[in-house]
């Protein structure tokens, strides 16, 4: 199995608002040590931050300085190249999609140039699921279904302006329910719409390995039925992302995840260079 064909397409650096433990150069070095083919830095850009979040965190500016991040990437590229590392390093963004700031998001994506754009939902109903309010008075089906619906609606609106659907199962991470996973059997219609959209539009389904780790005694799983349905609807590629916020998170669980994907019929990973898709085998 060639690790060099695996790419970590989702990583945060010190330029993200929550990147206090991050270090772009050390993360790139970690990716190189692991023998990954490449790493993409996708710092957060959320143009709408819920007011309620200020109760817990005073900082509400969740954009990053694109020029500074990209010139740091250029610097690290030069250093690693001079040391003979074959690692590819890409410039990305994780754009937080939110209905009320669509125009702002559209302008931001037009004005900046990236190798890769991940579209993610971090906030909805003007709340931050991380702090729990979103789940109050909702069944797990309402809470997870609402998240999937927002993701689908905003992806359709974004159209050509993104490449990867970020962590569709993010909403399970901080949920209070015994149902720890997004399972196909619970949301067949909504997942069909989403997976069909990805397959038809050539967008990548992200497998975010940070989701599948134990958190507060719960262990979400990647549902093989979702992968099976994705393939049935014409999907072929997935984007692997560790969602690292520090160097030792890069490439988290990639080898096992790649094997699991191959065992479930997904043979190819994808990454993006100057917004162009590049497909590589998962083994
Ligand atoms: Zn995210
Ligand atoms: Zn992220």
Question: What does this entry show, briefly?
Answer:
The protein is α/β, with parallel strands linked by helices and 283 residues long. The protein has helices at residues 24-34, 66-82, 102-111, 140-158, 188-201, 224-232, 254-263, and strands at residues 7-11, 38-46, 88-96, 116-120, 164-165, 204-208, 237-241, 268-273, 276-281. Bound molecules: zinc ion (2 copies).
Explain the overall architecture.
This protein is α/β, with parallel strands linked by helices. It has a single domain, classed as Metal-dependent hydrolases (TIM Barrel, Alpha-Beta Barrel), CATH 3.20.20. The chain contains 7 helices and 9 strands, in the order βαβαβαβαβαβαβαββ. The chain has helices at 24-34, 66-82, 102-111, 140-158, 188-201, 224-232, 254-263, and strands at 7-11, 38-46, 88-96, 116-120, 164-165, 204-208, 237-241, 268-273, 276-281. The chain has a 9-stranded mixed beta sheet with strand order 1-2-3-4-5-6-7-8-9. Strand 5 (164-165), helix 5 and strand 6 form a beta-alpha-beta unit. It is globular, with a radius of gyration of 18 Å. The mean pLDDT is 96. It binds zinc ion (2 copies). One zinc ion (ZN) binds next to loops.
Write the topology of this structure.
Layout: E1 7-11, H1 24-34, E2 38-46, H2 66-82, E3 88-96, H3 102-111, E4 116-120, H4 140-158, E5 164-165, H5 188-201, E6 204-208, H6 224-232, E7 237-241, H7 254-263, E8 268-273, E9 276-281
Parallel strand pairs: 1-2, 2-3, 3-4, 4-5, 5-6, 6-7, 7-8
Antiparallel strand pairs: 8-9
Bound molecules: zinc ion (2 copies).
One zinc ion (ZN) binds next to loops.
């Amino acid at each position: 199995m060639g690790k060099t064909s695996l790419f970590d397409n989702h990583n945060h650096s010190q330029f993200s608002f929550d990147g206090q433990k991050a270090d772009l150069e050390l993360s790139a070095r970690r990716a190189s040590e692991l023998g990954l083919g490449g790493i993409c830095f996708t710092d957060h850009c959320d143009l709408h931050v819920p007011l309620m979040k200020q109760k817990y965190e005073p900082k509400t500016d969740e954009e990053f300085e694109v020029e500074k991040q990209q010139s740091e990437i250029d610097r690290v590229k030069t250093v690693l190249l001079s040391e003979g590392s074959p690692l590819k390093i890409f410039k990305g963004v994780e754009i937080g999609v939110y209905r009320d700031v669509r125009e702002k998001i559209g302008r931001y994506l037009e004005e900046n140039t990236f190798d890769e754009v991940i579209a993610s939902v971090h906030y909805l109903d003007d709340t931050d699921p991380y702090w729990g309010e979103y789940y109050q008075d909702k069944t797990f089906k309402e809470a997870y279904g609402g998240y999937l619906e927002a993701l689908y609606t905003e992806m359709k609106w974004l159209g050509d302006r993104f490449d990867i659907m970020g962590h569709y199962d993010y909403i399970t991470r901080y949920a209070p329910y015994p149902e720890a996973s997004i399972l196909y059997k619970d949301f067949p219609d909504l997942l069909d719409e989403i997976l069909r959209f990805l397959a038809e539009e050539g967008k990548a389904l992200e497998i975010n390995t940070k989701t599948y780790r134990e958190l507060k005694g719960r262990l979400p799983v990647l549902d093989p039925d979702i992968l099976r349905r994705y393939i049935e609807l014409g999907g072929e590629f997935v984007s692997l992302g560790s969602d690292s916020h520090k160097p030792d998170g890069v490439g988290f669980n990639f080898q096992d995840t790649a094997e699991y994907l191959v065992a479930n019929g997904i043979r190819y990973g994808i990454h993006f260079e100057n917004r162009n898709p590049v497909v590589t085998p998962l083994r």
